[in-house]
Amino acid sequence: MAAEEFDADVLIVGAGPVGLALATELTMRGHTVSVIERNDRTGVQPRAKTTNIRTMTHMRRWGLAAEMRKRSPLSPDFPRDVIFRTGLFDAPIYTFHDAFCATPRTYEAFPEHAEFIPQYVVESVLADHVAAEPLADLTFSRELIDFEQDAEGVSARVRDLKSGEEKRLRSRFLVGADGGRSIVRESLGIAMNGTRDLVFCATLILRIPGLNDDPDLRRALFHWIIDPEAASFIGPMDRGDLWYWSKVADPDVTTADLLDCARRAIGRDYPIEIVTRDDWIVHSLIADHYREGRVFLAGDACHLHSPFGGHGMNQGIGDAVDLGWKLSASLRGWGSEGLLDSYTIERQQAHRAIVDSATENVASLSDHFADPDLSRTGPVGEAARARTAEAIERLKTPEFQSAGLVLGIRYTHSPALTEEPGSDRPLEVSRYIASARPGHLAPHAWIDDRTSLYDRFSTGFTLLRLAETHEGAEAALADAARREGIPLTIAGVDLPGLRQLYEANYALIRPDQHVGWRGDVLPTPEILLAIMTGRAGETVRRTA
């Protein structure tokens, strides 16, 4: 019997950053994808504005970091600051410098600084990349009607919203990257658990000619306005005169009232044009599970949380990276069911940590710090400003200085990595300490001024050799991986201090740059193959 023909290896529902990132991961590994999106993606809502250090590292892997920098609206000398003040032109009460590690400079702990860039620009960079990929079919104004799966694949009905024409698409897997109101998740009947309706916010996108050029304006990524009558957030959104302005509000607040509040926050009489209004609600929700057979969820389709901290889009792209290499392994025939199950096991751990932190961030917004005494002169005003500055530093540092959370998320109890004895170091949101324990992100180092250790990692597995070792054992592992069809590169790196950083002669680096195993002596190939294929269990121990 002839092999069944598929329209694509993977059908991706949703062409936001998550779906496009997944398409990038899969096509990079030689798989065909069909990406459908019901919208035309031409909105101007800011949504995510921070592309964090992990996402920019993925952009580096994909060869897109330079294009992201090119399209960023900020010049290199723009201060990556967050300023708390009573009005846009009032004296700062507290300032976070180098927020999100976004200042253009070299950092030791990671290869790419964060970038401040509207989500629709990130989508554009990824969409251009995917559209140019021969293995990808990217179409807009197409919606998923329904789907059914069987032992071999998924059959989906798709409608063209312009012509009304319906089409059947057959794929090996289907991924719902279709947002918080995911049709894919609803079709699977997967519940979202947590807390709904934490905060209602309203955002105005404003065109304010001349404001950027005001000589009295101290530039910053975000200005937190803590005036009791105008508690809000404002900042530049894109090139030119576009600004975003947001505040916690009642759902029935009028746009006119919002504009009056925005004018008070600005404090100077500039002409203002409302480009659009975007209302949004903060939830803290995580799906029960992210997989049903051959159908998976990613991004907002399986986790929703406060945007304060800038984790939403970035976590979704992290989902795409994790899922991408595991789907590829299954498509290539060497990934087990356990490897596919590890997607939920691992990413739920990351999402719980992010939801906890983001929920704490939303507990203290602009109105939390608003105090009438802040605008007073003399001892009363000075005491209020000092008291408020202390509270801002204590409560908001985890929001704007979160490298410990972004880089320190680790996986445990997964069939795609080994377990080491002993307790792990607690995760600290604002303090990152590199660790090569399995499940952690591989510690970073610079090989020279331009070459990151990460640049030596392959798109498959990388066996990192950090000391003189037994070549016969390496050859045996390479042969075993080759027989199974598992992509494995052996990279010897002689860099002072690196062996001490990893605390081992060897480290097995997964395709997502997390450590799967480390040890001083290679175990039998079967042990490492079990980790790579997702059959490790919890009994594989570090080889002494």
Can you give a write-up of this model?
Helix 7 packs antiparallel against helix 8. It is built from 14 helices and 22 strands. It has about 550 residues and is of the alpha/beta class. Strands 1, 2, 7, 8, 9, 10, 16 and 17 form an eight-stranded mixed sheet that branches. The chain is globular, with a radius of gyration of 24 Å. Residues about 540-544 have low confidence and may be disordered. It has a domain at about 410-535: 3-Layer(aba) Sandwich (Glutaredoxin).
Give me some keywords for this one.
eight-stranded mixed β-sheet, Glutaredoxin, alpha/beta, disordered C terminus, globular, 544 residues, single chain
Compose a concise summary of this entry.
This protein has 544 residues and is α/β, with parallel strands linked by helices. The protein has helices at 17-28, 53-62, 65-71, 119-131, 183-188, 255-266, 312-332, 337-362, 366-369, 378-400, 403-408, 471-484, 498-502, 525-533, and strands spanning 8-13, 33-37, 50-51, 82-85, 94-96, 115-116, 136-140, 142-149, 154-160, 166-176, 192-207, 222-225, 232-236, 242-248, 273-287, 291-292, 295-297, 303-304, 461-465, 488-492, 506-509, 515-519.
